[in-house]
């Protein structure tokens, strides 16, 4: 796939993520050494990687928050080609966690509640 801009690629992946039931994290980017323009970008699942806690000895210790990261590798990598279009060069569909069921379309959610709920 190719896109006219980084923003168009981001919008596509966010819409895909919404339908599938996950949230997108803007991940790494690479810049041109000539003009510092972004020439590639990785969009990842928000549960990508693991949170590394760095302890700073000069600040007081606060109650740590629970991390939502689970090491998920789902992502889409895009880079600018010679024509100036943003092209998908790598795509990982599989997630290492369950996806959010609330992302299903309303009608699909109703159908699943009717047919798969326990009867009283």
Features of the shown structure:
alpha+beta; FAR1_DNA_bnd_dom; 120 residues; five-stranded antiparallel sheet; 22% helix; flat
Description:
This protein has one domain (2-56, 64-92). It contains two helices and five strands; from the N terminus they run βαββββα. The termini are far apart. The longest helix has 15 residues, at 6-20. It has a five-stranded antiparallel sheet with strand order 1-5-4-3-2, with helices on one face. With 120 residues, the chain is α+β, with helices and mostly antiparallel strands. The radius of gyration is 19 Å and the shape is flat.
Task: Produce the secondary structure layout.
Layout: E1 2-3, H1 6-20, E2 24-31, E3 38-45, E4 75-80, E5 86-92, H2 106-116
Antiparallel strand pairs: 1-5, 2-3, 3-4, 4-5
Q: State the helicity in percent bands.
A: 10-25%
Q: Structural class of the helices, strands and pairings?
A: alpha+beta
Report the sheet-strand fraction. Answer: 25-35%
Number of strands: 5
How do the strands of the widest beta sheet line up side by side?
Answer: 1-5-4-3-2
Mean pLDDT across all residues, rounded?
76
Instruction: Determine Rg (CA atoms, Å).
Output: 19 Å
Order of helices and strands: EHEEEEH
* Main sheet overview: 5 strands, antiparallel
Number of helical stretches of at least 4 residues = 2
Termini, distance in Å?
49 Å
InterPro entries: FAR1_DNA_bnd_dom
Domain FAR1: 11-100
Pfam family, one: FAR1
Protein name: FAR1 domain-containing protein
